[in-house]
Amino acid sequence: MIEGSVNASLESVVALDLRGPTGQARYVDAVVDTGFSRFLTLPPSVVRELGLPFAGARLVILADGSEVALEAYAATVLWDGRPREIVAYAADTTPLIGMSMLEGHSLYVEVEDGGRVAIEAR
Length: 122
Description:
Layout: E1 2-6, E2 12-19, E3 25-32, E4 40-42, H1 44-50, E5 54-61, E6 67-79, E7 82-90, E8 96-97, H2 99-102, E9 105-109, E10 116-121
Parallel strand pairs: 3-8, 4-7
Antiparallel strand pairs: 1-2, 1-10, 2-3, 2-6, 4-8, 5-6, 6-7, 9-10
């Protein structure tokens, strides 16, 4: 089970353990975004720090309906204690966990400041 908490802005936040291709490790706090269908967004500084390999540019539709090309990178996340290979998108925003990351899991959120967030494999 992956656990986190709800912040004062009522965002569901969990800490992610990210790994680069040569073993670099970095924790980031990421917001669960149920409107984001991909895996994960990361700030470009984290992508560089981890030395993530470039996987091409991909079109992504934003919440306002506009399309943008974002650089995609191969990344490893320790997800529920196991390494998981995913595609992370470089974006100048708070790291976001999308629905592809949550596929096959249940999400439980106590929606209040300090509330519990739990992500559990089904």
